[in-house]
């Protein structure tokens, strides 16, 4: 199984819009997630493991779709990531995935790459937090 | 209670599965709309369903539409789960046949509360179905003996006669009348008379095959329809029914009573296609003959001719005169 950081996500993008609401607050809302799983640590570990397995390949598929300007697949993958991330409490990253889905659905090819960069930037903040938590609960 | 989860996102599926198992549901989880439809349309399948809107194969609203098209099956309560949230989309989801709509990421408490609403609706549906079935039973059955009532057994007889004629088989119609039943009522009262009728009904039902019909035709008259009955065996089967009444005493509140039954019988293969009323008239005549012959016996209705005369051609060929 690959690590969460293996998708080579990088910080920084000139297309990021830092004034949006979803950019405020923590990258990962652990408290909300704990409430959702009724404080079940085992379930939380399960979810993080599923995410660790599913997120990198979905992200890679999205990168390929954006590179190929395949709007239909980009919208579908953006939607999948949005669902996955919001279930996990990754509020800001989920919002970035939602924006990408909207842009792809609207056929705004020119804005697609920027939306992908913004998503990667948010994911780069989120993933270390998840990794740190998983390392912590393993010990 | 069984519940179906359909979501292509493994993470969301696992979260829902665990949340619902913890709430006491028996969970089936699938990852696309086609699998969801298969589950929801199979016999004894889940009647509660949480369907993701966007799924491979079939999306959530399409699953709802296809489930609703199958009106013959029991009601399925379906909740669409989605991150879509505009009013137009909510309307679209509900118009497709969904009962409710929940936005992702869901709140566990809200989800459970909404599913309890679904359970209440399903319980209400069960009660309505039960009430309808009770009404249907009452409309087609005799309240005293629980046998088919006159209307119901006549309908079934008419249908059976058509079928046996089409398939070139024979249906045997028996009309039985309890001998001296008026004396039972007059001597022991109507409560004992009712006991006698109930016991005779049970004996008749116990003497026929599961696919034969027994109905209460009148006060102490019973109509029995032996479906696809070989004419060679029909008189023997009728005799068995007659003996089922006379071979042992009937226990009542006022002691045991020895009763008999007279029977008239008719085999449809002897008569050709005729209206039910006409055939019943013939059976009734045979029953009258059984009564006139001393009761506790069987008389078969015999047609004057076994086959219909062949119809003359409407037009005779004209020979041209030279």
Low-confidence stretches of chain A: 5-22
> What integer value in Å does the Rg of chain A equal?
15 Å
The helix-and-strand class of chain A reads: mainly alpha
* CATH fold category name of the largest domain in chain B: Alpha-Beta Plaits
Largest sheet of chain A: none
Radius of gyration of chain B: 31 Å
Q: What's the number of extended β-strand segments of chain B?
A: 12
- The SSE order of chain B reads EHEHEHEHEHHEHHEEHEEEHE
Helical segment count of chain B: 10
CATH class label of the largest domain in chain B: Alpha Beta
Give the N-to-C terminal Cα separation of chain A: 19 Å
Q: Please, how many helices of chain A? A: 5
**What's the mean pLDDT score of chain A?**
83
Report, as a whole number of angstroms, the end-to-end distance of chain B. 91 Å
Name of the CATH class of chain A: Mainly Alpha
CATH T-level fold name of chain A: Four Helix Bundle (Hemerythrin (Met), subunit A)
Low-confidence stretches of chain B: 308-322
Question: What does the model show?
Answer:
The complex is a heterodimer of chains A (139) and B (322). Chain A is an all-alpha fold and 139 residues long. Chain A contains five helices and no strands. Residues 5-22 of chain A have low confidence and may be disordered. In chain B, the strands form three sheets. Chain B has a five-stranded parallel beta sheet with strand order 2-1-3-4-5, sandwiched between helices. A five-stranded mixed beta sheet of chain B has the order 7-8-6-11-12, with helices on both faces. A two-stranded antiparallel ribbon of chain B has the order 9-10. Mean pLDDT of chain B is 90; it is low at 308-322. Chain B folds into two domains: 2-138, Rossmann fold, CATH 3.40.50; 150-300, 2-Layer Sandwich (Alpha-Beta Plaits). In chain B, helix 2 (33-41) runs parallel beside helix 3. Chains A and B meet through helix 2 and helix 3 of A and helix 1 of B.
């Amino acid at each position: 199984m690959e690590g969460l950081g293996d998708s080579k996500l990088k910080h920084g993008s000139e297309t990021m819009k830092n004034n949006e609401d979803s950019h405020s607050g923590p990258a990962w809302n652990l408290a909300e997630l704990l409430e959702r799983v009724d404080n079940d640590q085992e379930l939380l570990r399960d979810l993080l493991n599923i995410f660790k397995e599913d997120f990198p390949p979905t992200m890679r598929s999205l990168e390929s779709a954006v590179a190929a300007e395949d709007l239909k697949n980009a919208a579908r993958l953006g939607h999948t990531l949005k669902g996955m991330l919001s279930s996990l409490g990754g509020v800001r990253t989920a919002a970035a995935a939602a924006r990408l889905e909207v842009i792809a659905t609207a056929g705004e090819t020119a804005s697609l790459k920027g939306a992908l960069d913004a998503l990667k930037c948010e994911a780069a903040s989120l993933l270390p937090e998840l990794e740190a938590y998983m390392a912590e609960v393993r010990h | 209670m069984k519940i179906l989860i359909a979501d292509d996102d493994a993470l969301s599926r696992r979260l829902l599965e665990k949340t619902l198992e913890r709430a006491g549901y028996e969970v089936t989880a699938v990852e696309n709309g086609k699998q969801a439809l298969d589950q929801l349309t199979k016999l004894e399948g889940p009647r509660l369903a949480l369907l993701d809107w966007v799924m491979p194969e079939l999306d959530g609203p399409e699953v709802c539409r296809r489930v609703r098209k199958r009106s013959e099956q029991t009601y399925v309560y379906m909740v669409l789960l989605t991150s879509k949230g505009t009013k137009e989309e909510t309307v679209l989801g509900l118009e497709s046949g969904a009962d409710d709509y929940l936005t992702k990421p869901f709140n566990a408490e809200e989800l459970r509360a909404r599913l309890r609403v679904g359970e209440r609706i399903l319980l209400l549906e069960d009660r309505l179905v039960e009430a309808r079935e009770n009404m249907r039973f009452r409309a087609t059955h005799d309240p005293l003996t629980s046998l088919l009532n006159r209307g119901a057994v006549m309908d079934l007889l008419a249908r059976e006669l058509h079928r046996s004629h089409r398939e070139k088989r024979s249906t045997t119609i028996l009309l039985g009348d309890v001998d001296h039943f008026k004396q039972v009522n007059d001597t022991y009262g109507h409560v004992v008379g009712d006991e006698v009728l109930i016991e005779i009904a049970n004996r008749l039902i116990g003497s026929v095959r599961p696919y034969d019909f027994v109905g209460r035709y009148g006060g102490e008259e019973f109509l029995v329809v032996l479906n696809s009955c070989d004419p060679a065996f029909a008189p023997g089967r009728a005799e068995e029914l007659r003996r089922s009444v006379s071979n042992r005493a009937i226990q009542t509140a006022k002691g045991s009573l020895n009763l008999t039954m007279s029977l008239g019988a008719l085999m449809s293969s002897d008569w050709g296609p005729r209206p039910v009323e006409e055939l019943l008239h013939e059976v009734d005549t045979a029953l009258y003959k059984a009564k006139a012959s001393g009761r506790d016996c069987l008389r078969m209705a015999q047609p004057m001719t076994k086959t219909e005369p062949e119809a003359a051609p409407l037009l005779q060929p004209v020979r041209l005169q030279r």
